Amino acid sequence: MIKLVKLDRHHRKARSNKGKNEPRNISIVPRYMHIAFHQMFGVMQPDDIATQLTKILDSLNETWVDSDFKLIYKIIAVKREKWKKRSAWYVK
Ligand SMILES: [Zn+2]
Model-level pTM? Predict the structure, then answer.
């Protein structure tokens, strides 16, 4: 059975932050995920999203997941050009 999902256009760089209506800046996403994303992150920039994800991870560890485990992940936002030049950052 095929389940139909409503799709939205998401601006990866928010229009309120000078994000443009060009294909490079648009993702087609399921509406339910689009709503969830903006409920969690509003129109935050990548640095703020990284901070928010870290807070969510802390909350998951403190309240939601099996206390015998701890979720660990390092979340940072790096501009792609810098990432290409210094990919060694990720080999630690
Ligand atoms: Zn959006």
Answer: 0.78
Same domain, 32 and 49: no
Same domain, 24 and 5: yes
Does one domain contain both 61 and 33? no
Q: Report how far ligand 1's centroid is from the alpha carbon of 87 (Å).
A: 29
Query: How many angstroms does the Cα of residue 10 sit away from the middle of ligand 1?
Result: 4
Give pLDDT tens digits for 59-92: 999 999 999 999 999 888 988 887 777 665 554 4
Ligand 1 geometric centre to CA of 72 (Å): 27
Quick one: 64 and 78 in the same domain? yes
Distance 36 CA to ligand 1 centre (A): 10
Q: Give CA–CA dist 28/3, Å, rounded.
A: 17
Q: Domain range holding 39?
A: 1-43
Condensed to tens digits (0 to 9), the pLDDT of residues 27-38 reads 999 999 999 999
Structural element, H or E, at residue 30: strand 26-30
How many other C-beta atoms are found inside a 10 Å radius of the C-beta of residue 72? 7
